[in-house]
């Protein structure tokens, strides 16, 4: 398998496992989130160690031993992006599988299991034209103040949504136009979405316009901007007049 085939296959398979765990009907919402996280993580970690034993690995649900830091190729996975949404049987959750090469999110797949979709970096498609009124995806529970402010200045509609992967893929699919996040994330939240979004021709950066870098010792990432290049330019000018 190519790296892209592997990423897509693992993301899709993990998504099917997660739907099976949820479909068992055994777990309360909170317990379901925990069971799903652990089940998908075990599958992804063991599968990647089997398929790519010489690569590094970073997962939200696995303690990092630091060996990845000296490696050129590092897989970055989020077994369930949007654990809360998954546990509540919502559709806006995702599975992320990405490969960072020399710190760049180069290969990625984002599965949206309840939509039956796997978006992948090696199969980009044209993004539908933006409507007259732009749409900005924001957290459904705690919208970033910067995003709300910028949306007001652009006259954009706010679209509340759950996981980071679901938000980013809404832009990729033409269901939204701007994803501006300033509330803090981690590398696994954005690596796969950024790999896919960049392959589709979208602008991906920090909100100061600087590049996104992965496989850092500190995996915290303060902010993120994903949008069509022309919309990103407008947002960055409003953020930094």
UniProtKB/TrEMBL annotation:
Amino-acid positions noted as binding Mg(2+) in the UniProt annotation, renumbered to this chain: 60, 78, 81, 189
Cofactor annotation: Mg(2+)
Taxonomic classification: Bacteria, Pseudomonadati, Pseudomonadota, Alphaproteobacteria, Sphingomonadales
PANTHER family: 3'(2'),5'-BISPHOSPHATE NUCLEOTIDASE 1
Xref: InterPro entries: CysQ/Inositol_MonoPase, Inositol_monophosphatase-like
UniProt keyword terms in alphabetical order: Magnesium, Metal-binding
Protein name in the entry: 3'(2'),5'-bisphosphate nucleotidase CysQ
One GO MF term attached to the UniProt entry: 3'(2'),5'-bisphosphate nucleotidase activity
């Amino acid at each position: 398998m190519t790296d892209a085939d592997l990423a897509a296959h693992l993301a899709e398979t993990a998504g099917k496992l997660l739907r099976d765990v949820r479909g068992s009907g055994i777990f309360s919402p909170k317990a379901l989130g925990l069971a799903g996280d652990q089940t998908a993580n075990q599958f992804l970690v063991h599968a990647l160690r089997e398929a790519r034993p010489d690569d590094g690995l970073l997962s939200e649900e696995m303690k990092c031993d630091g060996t990845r830091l000296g490696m050129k190729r590092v897989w970055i996975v989020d077994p369930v992006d949007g654990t809360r949404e998954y546990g509540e049987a919502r559709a806006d959750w995702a599975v992320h599988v990405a490969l960072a090469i020399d710190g760049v999110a180069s290969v990625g797949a984002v599965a949206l299991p309840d939509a039956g979709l796997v978006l992948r970096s090696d199969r980009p498609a044209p993004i539908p034209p933006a409507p007259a009124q732009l749409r900005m995806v924001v957290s459904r529970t705690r919208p970033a103040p910067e995003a709300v402010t910028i949306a007001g200045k652009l006259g954009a509609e706010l679209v509340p949504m759950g996981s980071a992967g679901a938000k980013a893929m809404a832009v990729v699919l033409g269901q939204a136009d701007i994803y501006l996040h300033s509330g803090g994330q981690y590398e696994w939240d954005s690596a796969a979405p950024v790999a896919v979004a960049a392959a589709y021709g979208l602008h991906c950066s920090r909100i100061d316009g600087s590049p996104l870098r992965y496989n850092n010792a500190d995996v915290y990432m303060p902010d993120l901007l994903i949008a069509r290049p022309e919309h990103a330019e407008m947002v960055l000018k409003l953020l930094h007049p």
